Amino acid sequence: MINERQSDEQLWNALREGDQDAFSALYQRFYATLYSYGYKVADNVTLVEDAIQDLFVDLWRMRRSVSGAESVKFYLFRSLRRKIHVLSKKEDGWHFVDTETHAAPESYSAEHPLMQEEEQSQLIERITYALEKLPPRQQEVIALRFYQGFKNEEIARIMGITEKSVRNTLHKALSHLREQAPFLAPLLGFLLWWFS
Amino acid sequence: MENYRNYTAEEFAQDAFFQQSVYRPTADSDFFWSSFLERYPEKQPVVTAARTFLQAVEKGQVLPSAEQGARMWQGIERQLQEPESTPEIPESPVRRIGLRWIRAAAVLLMMGFGWWFVTKPGTYDRSIAQKGWSLITGTTLEEKVNDTTSPLSIRLSDGSRVVLQPRSRIRYPKSFDASKRETYLEGEGFFDVARNTLQPFIVYSGKVITQVVGTSFTIRAIPEAKTISVAVRTGKVAVYTRNAAEEASRNRLLLTPNQQAIFDIGSGQLTKRLVDEPVLVARAAGTQSFIFNNAPVSQVFRKLEQAYGVTIQYDSTALRHCNLTAPLGNEPLFRKLDIICQTIGATYEVWDTRIVVTGSGCETSNQ
């Protein structure tokens, strides 16, 4: 909403002037959504928590030098992803999930055709299940696009890839979904239109 | 609204306002989409498909618990206290931030009903939610108990007014939080809420949660009674149950004036119907004339629909020759309908929130 957006910027400007209320309000507003994104990037609770803390500690310490952000949320997401990258390199025996290698997802049985009277919640359950079977990177793009509401161009800048590969990843994700969950085809058909 | 008319499901799923309406619905956004679908019922399948997909995406999100949120904040405080950072920070700022955090935590916990709780019920401590923020913050809520035999009028800090019926109790903070106005009701109260779209007004009464931005309504949540009711006088009201927050399909009712939500405690069902005595809706009151002189019934019904904010359904073809001459006045809506139906030889029934008039029609000579 417009008001929310204005508020983000107001908080951001107040933070740059050293307003602690604004600082804690920004944390309060964003930590949960940052966490949910962080968890898509790195499936490691401690690492995500550390990255969020570092992000906010830096934000306060460097509040005077941070620039005016055109989108506070975008700035925070991009910074968090970088933090996770940096921390994951330091950590031993843990690997950034940034690879396309992924166990072959088991197909959700197509023997349960979607019944007319089937509960909406069961349908949601099935799509969620199918989404969880996607490679991590595809899940990340889906989350940024459909949950966090970023545009392809912003996603590209957050992840440090080209817009074209954002589009490709999204396309792969949705094709994957269609293969893994044939019963979803009628629903997902529409999602594939925009690539054709 | 026009813009959305030609949207495909995928365009809906990508639309910022649509996403917000799914993830962080407000009474206003709910009303927007329900009236959109009323106007363009053919969009139902695409809207449902888009919503289902988004809900699945939402379900796959892992959100932190309140404890994790507090723990991370403590970590931030601790790191900011380290000596190298002191030149940047005025004296004991962290302590002050710490206190603010407590307030922040309270807001987050209560917001839970809005979307957090809905998103991730598993991580949410329900017992804390039910006791409200006083438990978390140590802030004591103001409490008013009406143990007299007449109604008690209470003015809240935001300008809203509550008329508390005998043997009823309300709790509220001395000054409301910046993002929400929250009150807790036991018994019966009439609320006249000062409008503020940025600070929704929420009433918790037993298992029922009522959310508005500015409106008036009555809540009846008598301890030991079998039902809890929320009846709307003016404005728009969203009512949902605590349990609804756990279900994927959120059980949320949207009420307009003269509608009420009835929550059956035994079955856990929340249903919507007309109030027993519909009154003139506020903006129409005072300027109403119900004197009809050989007026077509379609016109009479339209007049009543506008005056009382109700929906009247009838077979317009069957009743096309029915005209009415009647000087109606202050009698209640249902009395007016009795008179009208008698005159045109019809009957009416109330179905949920609709009034359905059936009649075989009038002879053309009636004109």
Automatic annotation (TrEMBL), chain A:
Keywords for the protein's UniProt record, in alphabetical order: Sigma factor, Transcription, Transcription regulation
Segments forming a coiled coil: none
Keyword set includes Transmembrane: no
InterPro entries membership: RNA_pol_sigma-70-like, RNA_pol_sigma-70_dom, RNA_pol_sigma70_r2, RNA_pol_sigma70_r4_t2, RNA_pol_sigma_r2, RNA_pol_sigma_r3/r4-like, Tscrpt_reg_LuxR_C, WH-like_DNA-bd_sf
GO terms under biological process: DNA-templated transcription initiation
Domain HTH luxR-type: 131-185
GO molecular function, a single term: DNA binding
The family this protein is said to belong to: Belongs to the sigma-70 factor family. ECF subfamily.
Record's protein name: RNA polymerase sigma-70 factor, ECF subfamily
Species name: Siphonobacter aquaeclarae
Automatic annotation (TrEMBL), chain B:
Keywords: Membrane, Transmembrane, Transmembrane helix
Classification via Gene3D superfamilies: 2.60.120.1440, 3.55.50.30
Regions crossing the membrane: 101-118
Pfam families to which the protein is assigned, alphabetical: FecR, FecR_C
GO molecular function, a single term: sigma factor antagonist activity
UniProt superkingdom: Bacteria
Domain Protein FecR C-terminal: 290-357
UniProt domain FecR protein: residue ranges: 149-237
Protein name per its UniProtKB record: FecR family protein
Source species of the chain: Siphonobacter aquaeclarae
